[in-house]
Amino acid sequence: MKDLEGFKSLISKPKKVVIVTHFKPDADALGSSLGLAGFLKKKGHSVQVITPSDYPKFLHWMPGNDKVLAILKDQPSTEQKASEFVANAEVIFCLDFSSLNRIHSLGEMVRNAKATKVLIDHHLEPEHFAHYEHWDPKAASTAGLIFDLIEIMGEKSSLDKDIANCLYAGLLTDTGGFRHSNTTQKEFLIASELVGAGANPSWVSKMIYDTNTLARMKLTGFVLSQKLIVLPEFRTVYICLDSDELKQFDTKTGDTEGLVNYGLSIEGIRLSVLMYDRKEEIKLSFRSLGNFPANEIARKYFDGGGHRNAAGGSTKLSLEETLKKFLSILPEYKSQLESDD
Ligand code: 5GP
Ligand code: MN
Q: Which residue, judged by its Cα, is nearest atom 3 of ligand 1?
């Protein structure tokens, strides 16, 4: 953070704080938000976490979850309440996203708010709408950046078990369980500090990875046996799920998370894509290996973005048209897909 002293002075007295994170928050988005909320509450601030949508049940264990205001389409009062919090806030933290369109209707509320804005994030190409930025695209997780910030402010002693578990969850999942190429010594150092502050790695892992419903397990089985399509000439795997298939397995928010990773675990595959019908749009998730730029495909063709090896986007096309579009761009990337870099 450039003006650390300015930031410290901003939060030196109790303020009305709002923390927002991206649409369909994952464990890093929610964990960094609730970890920061826990820290700021200890410092005497009044804090409201707002999410632009619902989120998976396997994140509901996080301390502070019961106070989160989630904007729900079928409950207009949630959006009204959110706009009041945002308009009245003195400080707004924006966590784990870098451009305001990723928070949907909240985006314009935040842009127009009088509050001082603070961006803490690790995605590429930030929109630079905030007064303070703690931004590092090399950081594996936003949760790790929250830990950094608490540490450089000299406030490590404020960490407690609840804050540490929330931050550990973000670090764990954004590194794919310390398996992705973004896992460096730094991530283990942060993990070590969080465990020292009371985080419980086996409990957090259990809550996130091993609390499946039977329906979700059956969806996974169905996808692996029936829906995984391999295109050996492009070293690509794709999965398409239509709304009937999602309904058949009573699919809830978060149930499709992780499916896209299975494709990449097949030997020789360099690009894996999941497309599914989210009713209001078709959502795409991309995973790649090595230097293959999954985020370029997401940005150029699917109104999205992300990291080189993990990206996402969406279309307003039908599922069939989305698949057609995806297949039509593969030849452009053939040589990069053939390379082992
Ligand atoms: P996931 O596939 O898990 O939904 O997302 C993987 C990564 O892709 C996220 O961490 C985020 O960086 C990026 N991402 C996912 N969806 C979108 C999107 O709609 N727009 C942008 N800009 N990035 C996205
Ligand atoms: Mn993240």
A: 285
Smallest CA-to-CA distance from 26 within 127, 130, 160, 142 is with 142
Over the stretch 50-81, which tens digit does the pLDDT of each residue have?
999 999 999 999 999 999 999 999 999 999 99
Name the pairing type of β-strands 69-70 and 46-51: parallel
| pLDDT the model gives residue 31 | 98
Ligand nearest to the CA of 294: 1
Q: Which atom of ligand 1 is nearest to the CA of 284?
A: 2
pLDDT in tens, 247-257: 999 999 999 99
- Protein residue closest via CA to atom 20 of ligand 1: 304
Q: Which domains occur in the chain, in start order?
A: 4-209 (3.90.1640.10), 214-338 (3.10.310.30)
Candidates 23, 24, 26: which one to mutate for ligand 1, based on the most atoms within 8 Å of Cβ? Answer: 26
- C-alpha 323/C-alpha 314 separation (Å) is 12
- pLDDT tens readout for residues 153-197: 999 999 999 999 999 999 999 999 999 989 999 999 999 999 999
Query: Which protein residues are within 6 Å of ligand 1, measured from CB?
Result: 102, 123, 285, 304-307, 310-314
The residue written with tokens 């969406």 in the block is 314
Give the type of residue at 232: P
Ligand 1 atom at shortest distance from the alpha carbon of 313: 19
24 sits in the region (left: phi over 0; alpha: psi -120 to 50; else beta) called: left
Distance CA 31, CA 220 (A): 25
**Is 130 exposed, middle or buried, given 0-12, 13-18 or 19+ CB atoms closer than 10 A?**
buried
Closest residue by Cα to atom 17, ligand 1, is 312
